[in-house]
Input
Amino acid sequence: MRAIGALSAGARTASVPDWDARTWSVLYLRAQGIGDMILATGVLRAIARSHPTIALDVLTTGKAAPVLDHNPYVRRVHTIGERYGDAIGLASVLRRSRYDVIIDGKITRGASFIRSPTLTMMSRAPYRVGVGGGNHHLVFNICVPRFDRTTTHMVEGSAALAAPFGVDLATADFRPEIFLTNEERAWAERSWATATRGPSTTGNRWLVNLSAGDRVRRWPDERWIALVAHLKARQPCATVAVIGVESERVSVQRVALASGAVALSAPRLRDALALVGTSERVVTSNTSITHAASAFRIPTVLLLEHGEDQWGSWRTPSEVAYWTGSSVDSLDVDTARDALDRMLAADD
Output
């Protein structure tokens, strides 16, 4: 880290510049997952709107990049692969872009921390913003308070990165935001019409997402069947649609058929986001879908690991079925039913 800091552009320690003095080209670095990118959208909005002189770009993964489609606060999106070697090919692109400021959006630390500082160095940006603590001051010359994941939601932790731009953290709105086109909404409405066997229904639209980012959060099909069947029994007039990634299409169809729901296809990320945005309730163990629901203000039933509330819904009505142990397999159907029933009771 000391070597990376020494090879980086700009001073070891920098004062916040006068943002109104000229145009500033800013790069926000968030090369992690889809959910991370969704949560960052509120911070991006706050930074982009803080001064008319800010031109904001984002660097993220190819999987997460579609989250920013049609986002009016982002000028350009760079993508990077998951291998460390991919950063080398990106270096010349970043140097040619001549960024004044780079913001490291990774507020949690882990083994991948080396990649963010390396990209920061390669950008040659003289102002380098990131969280403080540890040896971070060796890399970043403008540090914000370190994120305490035990007491703070991820959105609030990320919000600190907007402070150097003069954003009032106490009053600013950092809600995640996803922008759907009219065409995307129309596609989703046609999908829901298929699920309801017509253009309208007398009950709520419930979107049930089976897929999760990793195996430990993928609840077994049999338990999903029991939970969805319970929902259908409690709300027989509701439209219940089941989705998942394309590789789990067989499971999606199986769960839908066995529970009385309807399987919908969402082959692309934007398709899934459009279905979330046109639903009225969401049930999921996938935090990316949870964050998308927060962006659209959709009440959510979430299957979540105990102690991981920083990844829960953000200022959106939600009920949580907590699990402990090594995976979501430890969560029984009754606990999930209780969370679902609490959501149904709130609707009554």
Remarks:
- Residues 2-165 form a domain with the Rossmann fold fold (CATH 3.40.50.2000).
- The chain has two domains: 2-165, 182-347.
- The longest strand covers residues 54-61.
- The radius of gyration is 21 Å.
